[in-house]
Design a protein that fits this description.
eight-stranded mixed sheet, Carbamate kinase, 21% strand, 18 strands, six-stranded antiparallel sheet, 14 helices, homodimer, alpha/beta
């Protein structure tokens, strides 16, 4: 039994609906279909979710519906219905549903927006189920409340409640294809609450866990995850199989194919995830698994991310001071700053963190606290750093990988500001100046994917 | 004006006393002489300090003096007096002094031992001053209490009190050579308290700071600090000049020429330290300075130390959890464990710490707390690790140093368990298995000191 999730671009038009039907029909194990709201049909198009937010914000401001904005949303559904040739009374139902939600009496603006924007997925699921049925297939729309997908009362960032898994597990007893709207659940008292953005991935992952699916298929619009950013490296190699750990390390540094929080429920249940292309379903895609056989050398992918900075602190004999590092981290926490890494020398330590949230004012406050409370000898801030991740299972035990990587960087004139290696068994991290980022990625890609291994 | 400190082996015999006199006379700037207790004359010899501790422990156990043990101490002084041909009544004074201290009424055993063992330095200073005077030089013994060297009331680990610097500064007004016993100071109420072991280096450093000496000369029994451990690398290069930071990083990983806490007072006053050989005083020795001109490539020394272990903790999405690292460090602190380094991946972190103090019982307690309190997915302990430090000023901004180092390690088949680079500007740290330690040091020495740079 498989859970199959389709992203917004996979359900953006009637043509896409037809592809989805073919995909579902081609494999009888595809039992639960998780549906996103219609996405962009072209670069200049708008996503239905964004249109719905505009509708909600207009109503909040003027206390009346903007009919033009509402029509834009309804048109998306009606053009799909027309294209696939199904009865158009469903479009009137969708319009009525959105109008009801827009005009609903509400106490809390965040919840109001959650309810309106979730209708994008909900109505698309209804439309897809109707289409399947008109094609003579046994299919039905599943309402998340009736199915028991209960979540915490956090608008825009709801977390699944543990009991939901038990509730949802009974879905596997139902006959036919089940079409389930992604992105939201319900509080116990029936209030709609959405997951964080890209939350349809989360819905799919929860369902895969609940029914103990053999596979969670995640259909999107790329053939595979690539071994490097295609905007930096020309025609990077596709990755066939990667582990959860590798996926996490890559997505940390800019690979954004899958919403990584979404993977937790599937990861906990050990369910493999297959990223596939709706527009090219015969391509094998990329499979995310617990363990894989290592066939391609030590490195599977090279990722990079900008926007980091470092706080360097030195103090003579710091090393002898019990609690120094912990106190330093506590100061950052007081400003709600999460640190990323902290390489250390004997009498110095650097804290690497993301630059957003670390403005000039906070910087000054933190520097003065480090001097005053920790009696540091020196504090220095370095901005505009990029982190380069070289990722691959088993890398740690591969003699010479570091040498190859650092030689490649040196060869292209990139200075290594920081190396963090030794905790993760699947990655090596280099800190470089942002201006060196692209050069660093290209040189590493050439070393590990193009040149003949030494 | 210079402060000159002589170690135990430099004052172990009459022959050594004569060398010390020549050294002092050869430079009129050598004003304050800091004296250790007589050390070993040969490999099988005992240090006076150790003999004194035996005397004290015997007395504590049996409440009477062991005359044989006492004679062993007195003999050391009398044989020096004989050799250098000075009046022997001073030896009777020394014997009387030690007897008084051994039989003194005491309340606290630790303080008792402090007082007895400090007499080793104190009497050697008296003896050296007497010898200088008999040689017709203007010289006098300085009592630390009268000079105002006040310390905290911590037996065996006394810390200098700030006011001491002001008190001691007036020593520079005194005429002649001042002979000052190392290793101890006094509490305000006149109780003798010793610094930590090798504390004569501390006394010298405090005095250098107090009189704002132009140089602090530290005479010992080696010609210089070497660029690598001579027991590992054959005939390693001598280091002419190294910075305080370099010294600290090297001494952290096994270079033990100077007691590194001892350097703090000199370091704070920016006073250079010259390590020289009593037995070869014309050799330039090694100078420890604030800044040096970099002439010898990026690396100045390679050190290594055994006895480390790592605690590896992984948790899916750890990276998103504010305070995870801090809480982890707090658990270690509860067991009084100081951590050395903490390389981190995205969802994992390793804590490197020294193995002593981290027994099996504490290991189990910590593992269970990490699982319970931090809800980690996995916790692993790795023991028998060695840290290799590659040290040199300016290394950080030298493109390619990492590549050279990691290539050298790979070339000798050493797997790198951990790299910690990016905080210290003067070092690169590699974690390897203990069995690989020697091979690692040799290969790095060959890369940076023997082979022609790439």
């Amino acid at each position: 039994m498989k859970v199959v999730k389709f992203g917004g671009s996979s359900l953006a038009s009637g043509e896409q609906f037809k592809k989805v039907l073919q995909i579902i029909l081609s494999d009888t194990a595809r039992k639960i279909v998780v549906v996103s709201a219609p996405g962009k049909r072209s670069q200049s198009d708008k996503k239905v979710t964004d249109l719905l937010i505009e509708n909600a914000e207009y109503f909040l401001k003027y206390r009346e519906i903007n009919e033009g904005l509402l029509e834009q949303v309804v048109n998306r559904y009606s053009s799909i219905a027309e294209e696939v040739g199904i009865r158009t009374d469903i479009v009137s139902e969708i319009k009525a549903d959105i109008k009801t939600k827009l005009q609903k009496d509400f106490k809390n603006e965040e919840r109001y927006i959650d309810e309106v924007k979730a209708s994008g997925e909900d109505n698309n699921a209804r439309l897809l189920a109707a289409y399947f049925k008109e094609q003579g297939k046994e299919a039905c729309y599943i309402n998340p409340f009736e199915a028991g997908l209960f979540v915490t009362d956090q608008p825009g960032n709801a977390q699944v409640l543990p009991e939901s898994y038990e509730n949802l597990s009974s879905l596997k007893e139902r006959s036919g294809i089940l079409v389930f709207p992604g992105f939201f659940g319900y509080s116990k008292d029936g209030q709609i609450l959405t997951f964080s953005r890209s939350g349809s991935d989360i819905t799919g992952s929860i369902l895969a866990n609940a029914i103990k699916a053999e596979l969670y298929e995640n259909f999107t619009d790329v053939d595979a995850v690539y071994s490097a950013n295609p905007f930096v490296v020309k025609n990077p190699k596709e990755i066939r199989e990667l582990t959860y750990r590798e996926m996490r390390e890559l997505s940390y540094a800019g690979f954004s194919v899958l919403h990584d929080e979404a993977l937790i429920p599937a990861f906990r249940a050990g369910i493999p995830v297959n990223i596939k292309n709706t527009n090219n379903p015969s391509a094998p895609g990329t499979k995310i698994v617990n363990t894989r056989t290592n066939t391609n050398g030590p490195v599977i992918g090279i990722a990079s991310a900008k926007g980091f900075c470092s706080i360097y602190v030195s103090k003579y004999l710091m090393n002898r001071e019990l609690g120094f590092g912990r106190k330093l981290l506590h100061i950052l926490e007081d400003y709600n700053l999460s640190y990323e890494h902290s390489p250390s020398g004997i009498d110095d330590i650097s804290i690497i963190l993301r630059e957003d949230g670390f403005g000039k004012e906070i910087e000054e406050a933190i520097i003065s606290r480090i001097f005053n409370e920790l009696e540091a000898d020196e504090v220095k801030i370095e901005r505009d750093l990029a982190l380069i991740m070289v990722v691959g299972e088993g890398m740690r035990h591969n003699v010479g990988t570091t040498a190859r990587a650092s030689k490649a960087l040196a060869g292209s004139g990139v200075n290594i500001e920081m190396i963090n290696q030794g905790s993760s068994e699947v990655s090596m991290m280099f800190g470089v100046k942002e201006v060196d980022e692209k050069r660093a990625v290209i040189s590493l890609y050439e070393e590990f994917f193009v040149s003949i291994p030494v």
